TrEMBL record:
<dbReference type="InterPro" id="IPR020058">
    <property type="entry name" value="Glu/Gln-tRNA-synth_Ib_cat-dom"/>
</dbReference>
<feature type="domain" description="Aminoacyl-tRNA synthetase class I anticodon-binding">
    <location>
        <begin position="364"/>
        <end position="511"/>
    </location>
</feature>
<dbReference type="GO" id="GO:0000049">
    <property type="term" value="F:tRNA binding"/>
</dbReference>
<dbReference type="InterPro" id="IPR020751">
    <property type="entry name" value="aa-tRNA-synth_I_codon-bd_sub2"/>
</dbReference>
<comment type="subunit">
    <text>Monomer.</text>
</comment>
<dbReference type="GO" id="GO:0005524">
    <property type="term" value="F:ATP binding"/>
</dbReference>
<dbReference type="InterPro" id="IPR000924">
    <property type="entry name" value="Glu/Gln-tRNA-synth"/>
</dbReference>
<dbReference type="InterPro" id="IPR014729">
    <property type="entry name" value="Rossmann-like_a/b/a_fold"/>
</dbReference>
<comment type="function">
    <text>Catalyzes the attachment of glutamate to tRNA(Glu) in a two-step reaction: glutamate is first activated by ATP to form Glu-AMP and then transferred to the acceptor end of tRNA(Glu).</text>
</comment>
<keyword id="KW-0030">Aminoacyl-tRNA synthetase</keyword>
<keyword id="KW-0067">ATP-binding</keyword>
<feature type="short sequence motif" description="'KMSKS' region">
    <location>
        <begin position="253"/>
        <end position="257"/>
    </location>
</feature>
<dbReference type="InterPro" id="IPR033910">
    <property type="entry name" value="GluRS_core"/>
</dbReference>
<dbReference type="GO" id="GO:0008270">
    <property type="term" value="F:zinc ion binding"/>
</dbReference>
<dbReference type="GO" id="GO:0006424">
    <property type="term" value="P:glutamyl-tRNA aminoacylation"/>
</dbReference>
<dbReference type="GO" id="GO:0004818">
    <property type="term" value="F:glutamate-tRNA ligase activity"/>
</dbReference>
<dbReference type="Pfam" id="PF19269">
    <property type="entry name" value="Anticodon_2"/>
</dbReference>
Length: 520
């Protein structure tokens, strides 16, 4: 490829479902490489599968890309010099190039019926050889063709495959060699008049001057057919880069259950778009210095597809299936199912916690608000991202968050007024022989001091332990239940400074009243 050729990449999804991890990574790699090279990133919608394409899927794909912050320079809604950018609106263009190929003897009409083709395939199977179309109609005379056309016989259009050894260099996979005799004459226009995937994509990429085709390794087998069509049409052949396969925690190809999870599900689970972009960039690519925490602008300046590995990349978001059991190959039916299946020690969670801790508190609070909307246990005024008290609470607890969906329970804790002992486990804690003495001593120490921060509260709890001879669970659990009514929750040294001394004293007075413990 000439050095002065502008880098132009594209993402070309089919609107037949939502955007999943594999597709999103493809879009991201194309976007980041174009940005890093000062080039252009295009979005093209490949909707020639009319029976499965829907407007809803189209909108969902756009929404997913917009959430990820992937902006296209040309494509739907923004236009560009090589439109239209929706394949169903380009049928006249495909027809023009099809007629050109037929007139040059590089393609021909095939009048075989589906039944005849199936019979040929079965015959090949019976003989134990791969099926390759036999070119039955490749050499029909023009008169024979016209006779069938006048009779209204349905036909497809096949590409006349030249016999040769095809060799190309893939940026990621290396040198690839392919014998075209294994392909045979393949269909480029289906009997319904719509172009095949391999044909339409070449016409579009050629006319849209795509310089790099970056996609998943599953498309590697399509590349020989596409190169043959590029050459036949006289288009420059782009550089190809086939990204590694994505596997699950068990090392197997990502299952339909995990792999088909919508990108928007991660938004609804409380992950920031910056986090997910950073995580996906690491699926098969590494930075030159080995850094993994890479903010958006950094990625857009350093991403290089030449640094992608051809080794499988591990999507560690979901737990490894238990005891060798296969994951059920169906979609998750709820966010709760997805959350339950997630691996708490994933790199996604590590990155997410880092972003939540380090991004400006105003940005985090703004992103958190949608998760507070339905919470009746949080005052309305504290659902406003401009409320300084909400920002203060979030700033204090964010170090403990792996995603924003975890935050509402923590926020709600600060507004509990009617404290109650919740659950059998909490009740059992207060029944312990040493619980009363621990609670009384902590209450006394708290009453007589003026704690200001987490270290002050840690000191008070330590002193209560020294005075009663308790430590570990027999010290902290009674204090937790006495101040929150629960056996589990936010770290006490974080919670206490935000609640404040007076609120803590009142909470203890209410819980001991319910349990029958005396503070005297």
């Amino acid at each position: 490829m000439p050095n002065n050729r502008e880098v132009r990449t594209r993402f070309a999804p089919s609107p037949t479902g939502f955007l999943h991890v594999g597709g999103a990574r493809t879009a991201l790699f194309n976007y980041l490489y174009a940005k890093a090279q000062g080039g252009k990133f295009l979005l093209r919608i490949e909707d020639t599968d009319q029976s499965r394409s829907t407007e809803e899927s189209f909108k969902t794909i756009l929404e997913s890309l917009e959430w990820l912050g992937i902006e296209w320079d040309e494509g739907p809604s923004v236009g560009g010099p090589f439109g239209p950018y929706v394949q169903s609106e380009r049928l006249s263009i495909y027809r023009e190039y099809t007629e050109k190929l037929i007139s040059e003897g590089k393609a021909y009409r095939c009048f075989c019926t589906q039944e005849e083709l199936e019979a040929k395939k079965k015959q090949s199977e019976a003989m134990g050889i791969p099926y390759v179309y036999d070119g039955l109609h490749a050499n029909m005379s023009e008169a024979e063709v016209q006779e069938k056309l006048k009779a209204g016989v349905p036909y497809s259009v096949r590409f006349k495959t030249p016999s040769k050894t095809l060799i190309f260099d893939d940026i990621i996979q290396g040198k690839v060699k392919f014998e075209t005799k294994l392909i045979g004459d393949f269909i480029i226009v289906k009997s319904d008049g719509f172009p095949s995937y391999n044909y339409a994509v070449v016409v579009d990429d050629g006319l849209m001057r795509i310089s790099h085709v970056i996609r998943g390794v599953g498309h590697l087998s399509n590349t020989p057919r596409q190169i043959l069509i590029y050459e036949a049409l006289g288009f420059p052949v782009p550089e190809f880069a086939h990204a590694s396969e994505i596997v699950g925690m068990d090392g197997k190809k990502l299952s339909k259950r995990a792999g088909a999870t919508s990108i928007l599900a991660f938004r609804d689970l409380g992950y920031l778009p910056e986090t997910f972009v950073n995580y996906m960039a690491l699926l098969g690519w590494t930075s030159s210095d080995g850094q993994e925490y890479l903010r958006g602008e950094t990625l857009k300046s350093i991403f290089d597809v030449h640094r992608c590995s051809k080794s499988p990349s591990t999507f560690d978001v979901f737990k490894k299936p238990k005891g060798g059991e296969e994951e059920v190959a169906t979609n998750f039916s709820s966010l709760e199912q997805i959350a339950e299946a997630m691996n708490p020690k994933s790199k996604l969670n590590w990155l997410s916690n880092k972003y939540i801790r380090e991004l400006p508190i105003a940005q985090i609070t703004e992103a958190l608000v949608p998760f507070l909307t339905d919470r009746t246990d949080i005052p309305k005024e504290h659902k406003d991202p401009r409320n300084p008290e909400l920002a203060s609470i979030v700033d204090s607890v964010r170090v403990y968050l792996d995603n924003l969906r975890q935050a509402p329970d923590y926020v709600a804790e600060f507004f509990v007024s009617d404290i109650k002992i919740a659950g059998e486990e909490a009740e059992e804690v207060l029944k312990q022989e040493t619980a009363a003495s621990v609670i009384r001593e902590f209450y006394r120490l708290l009453s007589e001091s003026l704690p200001q921060n987490d270290e002050d509260y840690k000191t008070l709890m330590t002193q209560a332990g020294e005075a009663t001879g308790q430590k570990g669970k027999t010290l902290y659990m009674p204090i937790r239940v006495a101040t929150t009514g629960k056996a589990h929750g936010l770290e006490l040294p974080i919670l206490f400074p935000l609640l404040g001394k007076e609120k803590l004293l009142k909470r203890i007075e209410k819980t001991v009243l319910q349990s029958g413990i005396s503070l005297n």
